[in-house]
Amino acid sequence: MDITEEVWDKTLDINVKAPALMTKAVVPEMEKRGGGSVVMVASIAAFSPSPGFTPYNVSKTALLGLTKTLAIELAPRNIRVNCLAPGLIKTSFSRMFWMDKEKEERMKETLQIRRLGEPEDCAGIVSFLCSEDASYITGETVVVGGGTPTRL
Length: 152
What we know:
The protein has about 150 residues and is mainly α. It has five helices and three strands. α1 runs parallel beside α2.
C-alpha cells in the first residue's frame, strides 16, 4: 500500500475516467445515427489481479462496472456497451513479461494455450462486438486470456 496518491489519480484518470468521458463525448453522434456500440478495454487483471499492480488491477475492475452501468443507461438509446479483457498480449506495454525469454517461458506455462496473445487475437473480438452479429449483446465482458481461469 505504499503507492502514492499521484499514481492512484493518474491510473484511475487514464483507465476509468477517460473511457467514461470518451463515451460521453461519442454518445450524441451515435444517437444521431440511430445507435452504436462501445467497447471498453479492461484486462484479465480485473478477474485475476497481479500483486504489485494494485491501482491498475482496481482500475480495470472498475471498467467492468462501468460497462455494466453504461449498458443499462445507454440501451434505451440503442447503444450497446461491452468490454474486452485481454490477458497477456505481446505489446510494448507488457514487454517486461516477455522481453526476457526465460520470463516468457514461465508466463506461457501458466496459460492453457501455451503461447502469449497477439494484438490480432483481440481484433476479431472487438470487430464482432461492434458488428450487427452482436446486436443482442450488451453489458458483457469477453476475456481473451489464453485459458487463464477468470470465473465459473
